[in-house]
Amino acid sequence: MATTEDKPARTRLIGGPGMLLVWFYGVMVVGAVSRSVYQIATEFDRAPLAYALSAAAGVVYGFITYTLVRGGEKARRAALVCCAAELAGVLIVGTWTLVEPSAFPDATVWSDYGMGYVFIPVLLPLSAMYWLRRARTVTP
Amino acid sequence: MLDALTLVTGVAALLLAAWCGWAAYRDQPTKDWHFIGMAVVSLLALVQLVIGIVALARGEKPDQGTTIFVAYLLGALACVPAAAFMSLAERTRWGSVTVAAGGVVLAVLEVRLFDIWGG
């Protein structure tokens, strides 16, 4: 957080509700990354597609967390793009798991629109995009 | 022993969440008393980690695997302190909301721990 204070010109993205977003993204990073690392290390052959998708989700969450903490207009835009990608991922993978369950012998983070995670994976990008759009209007 | 502690920690986490949720509702940041509450919940998670490791050392096996069990114990320990630091950085109602969310996450972790250990 010291970096954001050094350069006041950089938009702060973790003020107020942004802090809550960072918390949830942080939780999802730990959840998705640790889960996929464990599954890929121990039983990758069982459901390679599902575990690879979980790992990809973890990377996207990690990047969004980083951009939120870093702050600034560029980071805000990058975060917006990633949130859109995340939302698309949740919707596509969620639909995919419902239409063709046989492709997924085991669940991913995004299975059934993130039902295993209380739908946080689908709610998070929506609230984050709302927050990031509003953060722009606050900036002078 | 572990089951009882899991239950106590889960309930304490939910109480902490409700308490900080109440502070957020009244538009207040987390105060000293809240941090004492967070310390108590974190202490419970620490005791749980120690008892869990002792149980493993004595040769007991969790139903769903030792690695997952230890990972969840560590996650449970880190959960509330992480939220506490974030509420220190965010001295508004949103800091309180973050700790409340941390309490709920910990409660979920406790439910999962109960399943992993095999209740």
Automatic annotation (TrEMBL), chain A:
Source superkingdom: Bacteria
Keywords annotated in UniProt: Membrane, Transmembrane, Transmembrane helix
Positions of transmembrane segments: 20-38, 50-69, 78-99, 114-132
Protein name: Integral membrane protein
Organism (species): Streptomyces naganishii JCM 4654
Automatic annotation (TrEMBL), chain B:
Domain of life, source organism: Bacteria
Keywords: Membrane, Transmembrane, Transmembrane helix
Transmembrane annotation, as ranges: 33-57, 69-88, 94-114
Protein name according to UniProt: Uncharacterized protein
